[in-house]
Amino acid sequence: MCSLFGRGLAHYIYNNALHARRAWSNCKPAKPTPPAATEPHSKIVDVCCEGMVVKIIPARSNNYMYLITDLPTGCTAAIDLSDNKILFEILKKENLKLSFAFITHHHEDHSGGTQELAAACPDVKICAGDERIKSVNHCVKDCEQLKLGEMTMNCMHTPCHTVGHYCYFVECGAGGPPALFTGDTLFQGGCGGFDEGTPDQMYAIVKRFLELPKETRIFGGHENTILNLRFAQCVEPENSSISARLFWAQKQRENKLPTPPSMLCEERTFNPFLRVDHPDVQHYTGDTDPSYVLFCLRKQRDAFK
Ligand SMILES: [Zn+2]
């Protein structure tokens, strides 16, 4: 009796398992849900100044690339090629013709699209200053100026994050505020790692940036403002510009809005890397030598999560 029952039960389990397996094999595979990383981290936003439009384009997990268009002539340039698929979609949708691409540095998340762009659009001038970047057909030099319609593109060699890093300072023909595309050299409330450079080099860059017009709009290569400002708060807990900017940045991010651009004169109030001359920043690092202050800030920032 016992064994009969046992056999029956075993048969029951076997049949059910078989049925389940058939049911499984007849199932169409569920439509895979796209991984979260493919969701854009921010909305696409146009920043309009007189005579010039900067389109802020989110890419990858927290990169930004940009399209700048000279309104009188329609001349359009890309800054960094982080994701060509998004770029080509926007160019098509907005009926824009790309004439230039300026690459800030050789890291793949900024320069990854150069070969594909060169193959698809051989007329586009691909400009950069590092031989590690593929398919460059115009090698830029420090202080070189290029005309983009009525805009003037000024190339600034800024070696520190990488040896061949360039920032691009754009003056629009109509006299509106200029724009500075900083790649991984300067971010809102922070700066990039000194991967291939020294604090002295970074200090030379800081001095150069601080000579630019105070209304310059800063467009960095990543969305990392909140973390930068949290670190800035550790450096200067009493600085109300930092807390106000952090509150604003959190609101922006709640609505998936980009935090760039900031103005250079604003950065001067809350970015510790542009405040190496301030007594509170010097107190935090325990030194007054600007390069050493930058070295300490960067070291602490590297450890800050
Ligand atoms: Zn980089």
Outline the structure in words.
The protein has a single domain, classed as Metallo-beta-lactamase, Chain A (4-Layer Sandwich), CATH 3.60.15.10. The chain has helices spanning about 1-25, 85-95, 110, 115-120, 200-210, 225-235, 240-255, 265-270, 280-285, 290-305; strands spanning about 45-50, 50-60, 65-70, 75-80, 100, 125-130, 140, 145-150, 150-155, 165-170, 180-185, 185, 190, 215-220, 260-265. About 35% of the residues lie in helices and about 20% in strands. The N and C termini lie far apart (about 65 Å). The radius of gyration is 25 Å and the shape is globular. The model is unreliable at about 1-30 (pLDDT under 50). Helix 5 packs across helix 10 (about 290-305) and helix 6 (about 225-235) runs antiparallel to helix 7 (about 240-255). With about 300 residues, the protein is of the alpha/beta class. The strands form three sheets. A seven-stranded mixed β-sheet has the order 1-2-3-4-5-6-7, covered by helices on one side. The protein has a six-stranded mixed β-sheet with strand order 8-9-10-11-14-15. It has a two-stranded antiparallel sheet with strand order 12-13. It is built from ten helices and 15 strands. It binds zinc ion. Zinc ion binds next to loops.
Compute the number of helices.
Answer: 10
Largest beta sheet: strand ordering: 1-2-3-4-5-6-7
| Oligomer status | single chain
Give the full name of the CATH homologous superfamily.
Ribonuclease Z/Hydroxyacylglutathione hydrolase-like
- Main sheet overview: 7 strands, mixed
Task: State mean pLDDT (0 to 100 scale).
Answer: 90
Topology as H/E string? HEEEEHEHHEEEEEEEEHEHHEHHH
Query: Using only CA atoms, what is the Rg?
Result: 25 Å
Beginning-to-end CA distance, first to last residue: 67 Å
Fraction of residues in H or I helices: 25-40%
Tell me how many strands there are: 15
The shape is globular
* CATH topology term: Metallo-beta-lactamase, Chain A
